[in-house]
Amino acid sequence: MWQSCKPKAPTSVAIGDAATRSFVPPGKYDEFYNIVSGGFNGQMAVYGIPSGRLFKILPVFSVFPESGYGYSEETKPMLNTSHGFVPWDDLHHIALSTTKGEHDGRWAFGNANNTPRVARINMKTFRTEEILEIPNSGGNHSSPFITENTEYLVAGTRFSIPMGSNKDVPISSYKENFKGSISFVKIDPKDGHMNIAFQLRTPGFNYDLSRAGKGPSHGWFFFSCYNTEQAYTLLEVNASQKDKDFIMAVNWKKAEEYIAQGKGRVEKAKYAHNIYSDDVHSATSTMQQEVTVLDVTEFPDIVYFIPCPKSPHGCDVDPTGEYIVGSGKLAAMMPVFSFSKIQKAIAAKDYEGDFAGIPVIKYESALHGEVKKPGLGPLHTEFDEKGNAYTSMFVSSEIVKWNVKTLEVLDRVPTYYSIGHLSVPGGPTSKPHGKYVIAYNKITKDRFLPTGPELTQSAQIYDISGDKMQLILDFPTTGEPHYAEAIPASLVAPNSVKIFKLEDNKHPYAAIGEGQAKVVRDGNKVHVSMTAIRSHLTPDNIEGVRMGDEVYFHITNLEQDWDVPHGFAIKGNANAEILVMPGETQTLKFIPDEVGIVPFYCTDFCSALHQEMSGYLRVSPAGSKTPLKFSTGKIEEVN
Ligand code: K7E
Ligand code: CUA
């Protein structure tokens, strides 16, 4: 039955044996990793599926005092942008790398929605390794989406804005002056390094979401577009006028050809490129100066529009690569387009007109069919390995299962409440792993114990192995999750890095062994190369630091065992603590603000004598003659 109102709750999850299906006994591992975006916390979080257990919070676009990410001297450059240091953002979408359309377990990518950036996370270390700013973008929502073999990562602007040399224009000149932009970021298959290969300059409206083609549609990209009304005020009303907006189909192989022929225009742009290296355990930030642009209105065979009702949000491609699902937030049905029909329509020039000179394919000519009365407020669609699709319905608060070929609705289950994204393990790939669909809900209400005005976020796991979807677990998440991907643990766990090898440590201030520990003055900078091993810091006493000095504590963790980090914190320090992994060097900057003795210590309970892992810094007045010295273990006589 068609359901148009929110189900009543709370409803028990323990239906039959449902609860046992999410139970992972103590000491046993989960089957999948779930990499979940943190929304406004700018992080990713890693959960186990089906248990819903939280393993890790992984800082990406946000500083993280727990580990010192964004506070340590080594990681500060990761958050550099053309606007300076930007230590927070809004992370919506995850893309896991694929080879031949299938998960390969190498990297996770994420987007910064606000100050446009994309990030690459190494799945061996679960750390952010690279952040690339996206120029000519008014907000990076349609991002990141990857091609079949991770050749490109694509980042589309949410807001159109004026670009080029003339940016000081009236907002009411939107139609003439505002443009969209889609960046094609080349991924180096060896190390994953990202570089903007080219940008497409596109008509001015809003770009929302996207997916790459696969199989037969490899070489194409599909973007959902809204506000084709080109409204610039009260979008709620003015951008919902037309019956149909567009899906934009992009032939990126063609765009590549034009770029290879030198048809791109090189424009000035300023954007930061930040890379972390595990050799020097440090990041560098480089400011890039130009970008190559291809204006799609000058090249007739790169871009085509397909009408799509009404303010589409998700735009998802099924595992075969033949079907493209448009989800109009305000539409009472969902169109499914056929890639082969789109190709036929283009060959036959079966157009209903053009928009800004770009052909608009006839709706019926591109259409495979419509899913009738699927539910209200369709947002996103994922796929299983049996030819079924699962669509999230925000307004009617449910997941609807339907058959991609026959378009028949097969099942529906309520979500608690108002689902946004959803995730089937492998759902966006050519080879879904199936088994579960996970709902990331926008409203929590009464699902968990109340925690004041701000509630935890609500995610839910449904077993989809049978014909009927069955709710088996509620689990809370951090931040506001938008998209997430789940990947079999077997593709990730065996490659997990356990330690960094000390002999590979090329950090300029590393002390590889206690014999290399030292304190060196360089003007008003004091560099302390300190080692940490169970259960002492070397040196543990430092004298000769004066007011006006900047002290850099470069801590090298000498351990070569898995799961033995050491921490470092010093009293009165205004930034953070740092956590240093075995074999790694990290640096905390400390500016003393008063004369006296300042204790420091290890913050990670590392052994029975962890509480003894400490030392003192003596701070003398400015200009004092206290000699610089450091010690460990030696008892001095004072007369
Ligand atoms: Cu949350 Cu992907 Cu930003 Cu839909 S978007 S819900
Ligand atoms: Cu090292 Cu506690």
Model description:
The protein contains 5 helices and 46 strands. A hairpin with a 5-residue loop joins strand 1 and strand 2 (43-49). The longest helix has 9 residues, at 252-260. With 639 residues, the chain is mainly β. The strands form 10 sheets. Strands 6, 7, 8, 9, 10, 11, 12, 13, 14, 18 and 19 form an 11-stranded mixed β-sheet that branches. It has a 6-stranded mixed β-sheet with strand order 42-41-44-45-39-46, with no helix packed on it. The relative contact order is 0.11. It is globular and about 95 Å long. The model is unreliable at 1-7 (pLDDT under 50). The chain binds sulfanyl-(tricuprio-$l^{4}-sulfanyl)copper (K7E) and dinuclear copper ion. Residues 92-93, 141, 209, 313, 379-380, 420-421, 482-483 line the site of sulfanyl-(tricuprio-$l^{4}-sulfanyl)copper.
Contiguous low-pLDDT stretches (5 residues minimum) are 1-7
Rounded to an integer in angstroms, the radius of gyration calculated over CA atoms is 27 Å
How large a portion of the residues is in β-strands, by DSSP E?
Answer: over 45%
Helical stretch count? 5
Major β-sheet profile: 11 strands, mixed
Shape summary: globular
Which structural class fits the helix and strand makeup? mainly beta
Give the CA-CA distance, first to last residue: 91 Å
- Estimated helix fraction: under 10%
Task: Average the pLDDT over all residues and give the rounded result.
Answer: 95
Q: Any ligands, ions or cofactors bound here, and which?
A: sulfanyl-(tricuprio-$l^{4}-sulfanyl)copper, dinuclear copper ion
The tally of strands reads: 46
